């Protein structure tokens, strides 16, 4: 049996790139996980739900990047899509509705050796979790947020979501939705996300490509992944699926992903729009900035016992 050495690194070390462990440890025993090893329970989604594809590609990513259980963290809120962590045989959490991002931020800030993935739905991300989305983006916390957008509340059986188009008939809008939908890509760019991409569960290679690029980004990476709810919004994304007579257009090769206005313009295209990386810039992360503050504070209290540091703080407050 191989020995698991889970070193918890110093969180003050700042941004530590996720190091892909070799397929074998020094003693030649430990191998990267296979898709089979990382798959947990049988997913309880409806047959044909787009979420299956996203999960399969996450497994593929883990296998491809040879990650070990203790280096994988999968967090979600509440919703059909947010059941995601249940189906991954690794560390993770199915957290409060809309609150996955603050929880995941805590993990990211304290464990720079991990890459935290957060999965969730359009309701979780943009209704109840709307504020957390904006603030996590502007803080540029290093993590990947993949929103499986089905334009509806699936788990609670067909209510209008913030991404439902005008006229969509649901249990909360029986005569058709009257509220203007939000545009997740515009929202992410304007909130300050430093990586903003769009994909669709019906194009597996593209989903994997976007997940890998997001994981390698040093900052808050956001992916909008169209994922059809076959139960409550069948055919919503047919226009983006060539197998259903639609078109899948990649972001033009001439697009400058560092140009915020150009990204915003792409985000404004009518459906089905473009797929790929709309926006990507490098900016210091919250992780790096906090690590810097911690380091400088610790140098000031070097050699002192915990109670002496506490005493100093109380003395200063007098
Ligand atoms: C505080 C709170 N409010 C409301 C709910 C009920 N609720 C559960 S999931 C959900 C919306 C799910 O929609 P979405 O995030 O789009 O996920 P999907 O099921 O479509 O994947 C709601 C309103 C809840 N669980 N907790
Ligand atoms: S209700 Fe919709 S989103 Fe939920 S599992 Fe079924 S098809 Fe998927
Ligand atoms: Mg939804």
Brief account:
This protein has helices spanning 35-38, 51-64, 100-110, 122-126, 130-139, 184-191, 204-215, 260-267, 286-300, 306-317; strands spanning 72-76, 91-94, 115-121, 143-149, 152-153, 159-160, 195-200, 220-226, 249-250, 274-280.
Q: Give the number of helices.
A: 10
Mean pLDDT: 92
Bulk shape: globular
Instruction: Give the strand line-up of the largest sheet.
Output: 2-1-3-4-8-7-10-9
Tell me which ligands are bound: thiamine diphosphate, iron/sulfur cluster, magnesium ion
Give the biggest sheet.
8 strands, mixed
- Give, in order, the helices and strands: HHEEHEHHEEEHEHEEHEHH
Terminal-residue CA separation:
57 Å
Number of strands: 10
Oligomer classification = single chain
Uncertain parts: 1-6
What percent of the residues sit in helical stretches (DSSP H or I)?
25-40%
Q: What class would the helix/strand composition place it in?
A: alpha/beta
Beta-strand residue fraction: 15-25%
**Alpha carbon gyration radius:** 21 Å
Properties at a glance:
10 strands, two-stranded antiparallel ribbon, eight-stranded mixed β-sheet, 318 residues, binds magnesium ion, alpha/beta, binds iron/sulfur cluster, 10 helices, globular
Description:
The chain is an alpha/beta fold. Helices cover 31% and strands 15% of the residues. It has 10 helices and 10 strands. The protein has helices at residues 35-38, 51-64, 100-110, 122-126, 130-139, 184-191, 204-215, 260-267, 286-300, 306-317, and strands at residues 72-76, 91-94, 115-121, 143-149, 152-153, 159-160, 195-200, 220-226, 249-250, 274-280. The chain has an 8-stranded mixed β-sheet, sandwiched between helices. Helix 8 (260-267) links the parallel strand 9 and strand 10 (274-280). Helix 2 (51-64) crosses helix 7 and helix 6 (184-191) packs antiparallel against helix 8 (260-267). The longest helix has 15 residues, at 286-300. The radius of gyration is 21 Å and the shape is globular. The model is unreliable at 1-6 (pLDDT under 50). It binds thiamine diphosphate, iron/sulfur cluster (SF4) and magnesium ion. Magnesium ion (MG) binds at residues 79, 121-123, 150, 152-154, 161. Iron/sulfur cluster binds at residues 45-46, 49, 51, 80, 150, 154-155, 229-232.
């Amino acid at each position: 049996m191989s020995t698991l050495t889970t070193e918890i690194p110093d969180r003050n070390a700042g941004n530590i790139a996720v190091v892909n462990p070799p397929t074998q440890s020094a003693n030649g025993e430990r191998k990267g996980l296979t898709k089979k090893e990382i798959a947990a329970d049988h997913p309880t989604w409806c047959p044909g739900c787009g979420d299956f594809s996203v999960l399969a590609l996450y497994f593929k990513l883990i296998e491809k990047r040879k990650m070990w259980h203790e280096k994988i963290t999968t967090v979600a809120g509440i919703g059909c899509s947010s059941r995601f962590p249940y189906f991954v045989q690794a560390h993770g959490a199915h957290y409060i509705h809309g609150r996955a991002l603050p929880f995941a931020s805590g993990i990211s800030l304290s464990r720079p050796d991990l890459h935290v993935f957060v999965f969730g739905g359009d309701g979780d991300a943009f209704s109840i979790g709307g504020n957390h989305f904006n603030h996590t983006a502007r803080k540029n916390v290093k993590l990947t947020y993949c929103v499986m957008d089905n334009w509806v509340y699936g788990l609670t059986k067909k209510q209008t979501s913030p991404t439902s188009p005008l006229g969509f008939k649901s249990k909360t809008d029986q005569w058709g939705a009257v509220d203007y939908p939000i545009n997740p890509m515009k929202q992410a760019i304007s909130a300050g996300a430093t990586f903003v991409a769009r994909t669709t569960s019906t194009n597996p290679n593209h989903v994997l490509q976007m997940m890998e690029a997001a994981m390698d980004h040093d900052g808050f990476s956001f992916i909008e992944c169209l994922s059809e709810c076959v139960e409550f919004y069948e055919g919503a994304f047919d226009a983006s699926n060539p197998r259903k007579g639609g078109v899948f257009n990649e972001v033009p090769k001439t697009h400058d992903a560092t140009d915020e206005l150009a990204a915003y313009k792409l985000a404004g295209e009518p459906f089905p729009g473009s797929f790929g990386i709309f926006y990507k810039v490098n900016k210091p992360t919250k992780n790096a900035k906090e690590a810097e503050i911690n380091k400088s504070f610790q140098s000031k209290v070097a050699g002192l016992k915990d109670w002496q540091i506490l005493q100093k703080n109380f003395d200063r407050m007098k």
